[in-house]
Design brief:
By secondary structure, the chain is mainly alpha-helical. The protein has one domain: MetI-like fold (Orthogonal Bundle), CATH 1.10.3720.10. 67% of the residues lie in helices and 6% in strands. The strands form three sheets. A two-stranded antiparallel ribbon has the order 1-2. It has a two-stranded antiparallel ribbon with strand order 3-4. A two-stranded antiparallel ribbon has the order 5-6. Helix 3 packs across helix 13 and helix 4 packs antiparallel against helix 5. The longest helix is centred in the middle third of the chain and has 37 residues. The relative contact order is 0.14. Keywords: Cell membrane, Membrane, Peptide transport, Protein transport, Transmembrane, Transmembrane helix, Transport. One of its GO terms (cellular component) is plasma membrane. Belongs to the binding-protein-dependent transport system permease family. Pfam families: BPD_transp_1, OppC_N.
């Protein structure tokens, strides 16, 4: 009898706040669809080597201006005469809508679809790692400033204000130019200029103030909460209060900021790569693909349109997902307060 009573009590126990947030997110169809789009693009980018080898049958990093493909039983040159009256000059083949050169070729005769998937690997990797590193740094700065207060808060807040006053892209461009020529030297460690760690660190650094400020405000509110004041009165060490009381309650803010920071990081990476100070050749990203298609915008616009549409799709999906997470976590916080 006692066992059945305890089992029924466990079955009727209300769900936890995180489970309620997950349920709320599942009911948000736009957020679930956006998450599906992101997962699909991530998986497609991870499968880029298999697409290039078994579908496109080409190396997207090797120039192929003198090559040709079989299209509808006929051999077609990859570089074709221009469509002007005199047929002067050559233009890459346009979209074939078949396995090889599905979206056409760029000015070097390389498969745009294959390079689009390879570029997605770098763009998504850089934006995700930049967002993660940015949130870690912002959490450290925001919690330290909000919880410690006093001189620590003044110093960290003024540093964030100085970084905030500099335009994001100007700040990122300046840091990229400084590290582009000789890389980054950190004592015995040397990070080469073509290493993806450089754009990851640069983009993460420039967005720290944007994430640290709301975290600081959240921590300042939590610092005056009753459970934190009770822990202080009981003599609980400050580091334990931060780990057990402050950090878990800041997690929801970090989760909501994650997709938004990742979207901004993707735009920053694309801008830097377009200016040739982000991802360096022979690697590719969506920004470098847009740069490759700049000179073909009137003859073969798909070279630039395809990566542009990919950027738009990811940024839009991340923003919709961020809104869904915010709404779901608002439900979580409300239920947590009720409990």
């Amino acid at each position: 009898m006692t066992h059945s009573t305890s089992a029924s009590a466990q079955d009727t126990r209300p769900p936890g706040p995180w489970r309620m947030a997950l349920r709320s997110l599942r009911r948000n169809r736009s957020a679930v669809f956006s998450l599906g789009v992101l997962v699909f693009l991530a998986i497609a980018s991870l499968l880029a080597p298999y697409y290039a080898r078994y579908v496109a049958h080409t190396d997207p990093f090797v120039s192929n201006v003198a090559g040709s493909i079989m299209l509808n039983g006929q051999e077609v040159d990859i570089m074709q005469p221009n469509d002007n009256l005199l047929h002067l000059g050559l233009s890459p083949i346009g979209p074939t809508w078949h396995g090889s050169y599905l979206l056409g070729a760029d000015s070097q005769g390389r498969d745009v679809a294959a390079r689009l998937l390879y570029g997605g690997r770098n763009s998504l990797l850089i934006s995700f790692c930049s967002a993660a590193l940015c949130l870690v740094l912002a959490a450290v700065v925001g919690i330290a400033a909000g919880f410690c207060g006093g001189i620590v808060d003044i110093i960290l807040s003024r540093m964030m204000d100085i970084m905030w006053s500099v335009p994001v892209y100007l700040f990122a461009i300046s840091l990229s130019i400084v590290t582009l020529s000789d890389g980054l030297h950190l004592g015995p460690f040397i990070i080469e200029s073509d290493n993806l760690i450089l754009p990851i660190c640069i983009i993460a650094l420039v967005y720290v103030p944007y994430a640290a400020r709301p975290i600081r405000g959240r921590v300042m509110a939590l610092r005056e909460a009753e459970f934190v004041m009770a822990a202080r009165c009981l003599g609980v060490p400050r580091w334990r209060i931060v780990l057990q009381d402050i950090l878990p309650n800041v997690t929801s803010t970090l989760v909501v900021l994650g997709p938004l920071i990742m979207a901004m990081s993707l735009l920053a990476e694309s801008a830097l790569s377009f200016l040739s100070i982000g991802v360096q050749a022979p690697a590719a990203s969506w920004g470098t693909l847009i740069q490759d298609g700049e000179g073909l915008i009137y003859t073969r616009p798909m070279v630039a349109i395809a990566p542009g549409l990919a950027i738009v799709a990811v940024v839009l999906a991340l923003n919709i997902l961020g809104d869904g997470l915010r709404d779901a976590l608002d439900v979580r916080d409300a239920s947590h307060r009720e409990q």
